[in-house]
Design a protein that fits this description.
Oligomer: single chain
Radius of gyration: 22 Å
CATH topology of the largest domain: TIM Barrel
Number of helices: 13
Strand content: 15-25%
Shape: globular
CATH architecture of the largest domain: Alpha-Beta Barrel
CATH class of the largest domain: Alpha Beta
Structural class: alpha/beta
Distance between the termini: 26 Å
Length: about 400
């Protein structure tokens, strides 16, 4: 469909068909849906939408859930792997279900497949769960964080510095630039070396930490992400050299499959150890916390089962006195989870600066971005996602052949 025909068609389509505009995405006010019919909130359709940009090759995928009463939920952008899972497995099992019964649906789905404990299955379930929370927020006409019991509307972001140069002069300049912008917490990535680099690699990675602390001063926090590139001996050697520079955490020195290495590292360093972006449920998090393997849980609501499961992970972490700082693959769900919890439990939102300040949320009217390193949450219903129609050439519902999966 070309743009002229696409836009012309909007004149004859009901306003719920394609675009959310203001509070009129579907019927977002509860007063419009307070139907006496007990079937009002039954899911009637689940759509995977592909948005195509007017002036570039940019495309994004969003999930839309529609009820018989017209109330809709919207979430995205979501990954292709999640979208395919929704299309092939979750959508047909959601149609006919009560859209407000997210807990019942989650429990049904975790029992619906022998492969439900993780991987792409969990990504698909996360997309559906987050869209259901958006739908519920639109139904009750409140933001998701209020549905979760939260009251925080101003959230501190930490600057995640993936992709920036670590040449000494460049690194120093970027640290100080971001500090001036308000980022009092910055995460840098030491993922270019590792055991193959031997003792020289340890020295170089320790020197980078020294330079980071020198550039930052003592009045801000520096976190390090090793992106699975180390082994236990490398991590221990690095930790001994840099404890004097007070890193706020060391993240994912190894894959989370290797829990014994996390336990041993945590026992032998004062630096808090972090992982969790590849936790797929509360049991993964509990296994690490009960063994004192980590002090920071980085469960990602895009991957670990959605808001429903991430909230349970928060409850478990609170018992163990650990932080939950969601991994920042996307921002919408993570922000609302953090806003719903005490700052002592969820102090920060990850902001992948280069990714999120680019075109990741290209099609959205209100792009989530911190100002002076703080997010300000709006009072728009659900996640407040609205499309900027002037940027959109076409929206189409998409499906995938099972042979493509």
């Amino acid at each position: 469909m070309n743009r002229r025909n696409f836009l012309t068609s909007l004149a004859v389509l009901a306003p719920t068909t394609i675009f959310p505009n203001g509070v009129g995405f579907g019927q977002s006010s509860r007063s419009k849906t307070k139907a006496k019919n007990s079937d009002a909130m039954i899911v009637s359709d689940v759509q995977m939408l592909e948005l195509r940009a007017r002036d570039s090759d940019k495309k994004s995928l969003y999930i839309k859930i529609i009820t018989k009463s017209g109330v809709e939920g919207l979430y995205g952008p979501i990954d292709l792997a999640a979208a395919v899972q929704v299309d092939h497995f979750f959508a047909k099992r959601l149609i006919g279900f009560d859209a407000l019964a997210h807990e019942a649906y989650w429990d049904k789905m975790i029992r619906a497949s022998r492969h439900s404990r993780g991987s792409h299955y969990s990504l698909g379930l996360s997309a559906v769960d987050n869209a259901l929370w958006d739908l519920k927020g639109r139904y009750f006409d409140v933001p998701v964080y209020k549905l979760l019991g939260g009251a925080r509307t101003r959230l501190r972001a930490y600057g995640s510095c993936l992709g920036y140069s670590q040449e000494p002069d460049d690194l120093k300049a970027k640290v100080q630039e971001l500090k001036a912008e308000g980022y009092r917490h910055q995460k840098w990535f030491l993922n270019k070396r590792g055991p193959k680099a031997g003792p020289e690699g340890v020295e170089q990675d320790a020197e980078t930490m020294r330079l980071l602390r020198e550039a930052a001063g003592d009045d801000m926090e520096i976190m390090i992400d090793a992106s699975w590139k180390w082994d236990l001996q490398y991590a221990l050697a690095w930790a001994r050299k840099v404890e004097q520079y007070n890193p706020w955490w060391i993240e994912e020195p190894f894959q989370s499959l290797n829990i014994d290495s996390f336990i041993e590292l945590s026992r032998n360093t004062s630096i808090p150890v972090a992982t969790g972006e590849h936790f797929y449920n509360r049991w993964d998090a509990h296994n690490f916390l009960k063994r004192d393997a980590i002090r920071v849980v980085q469960a990602d609501p895009e991957w670990c089962g959605g808001i429903t499961e991430t909230m349970k992970i928060c409850n478990i972490a609170s018992v163990h006195g650990a932080h939950v700082i969601p991994h920042g693959h996307s921002i919408h769900a993570a922000m609302h989870i953090v806003a719903s919890q005490p700052e002592e439990l969820c102090p920060l939102v990850e902001y992948l600066i280069r990714k999120m300040s680019g075109d990741y949320y290209y099609f959205e009217k209100e792009i989530p971005a911190p100002k002076n390193a703080f997010f300000e949450l709006s009072d728009r219903p659900g996640f407040g996602i609205e499309f900027e129609t002037s940027k959109i050439e076409d929206i189409k519902q998409v499906h995938w052949d099972k042979n493509e999966a």
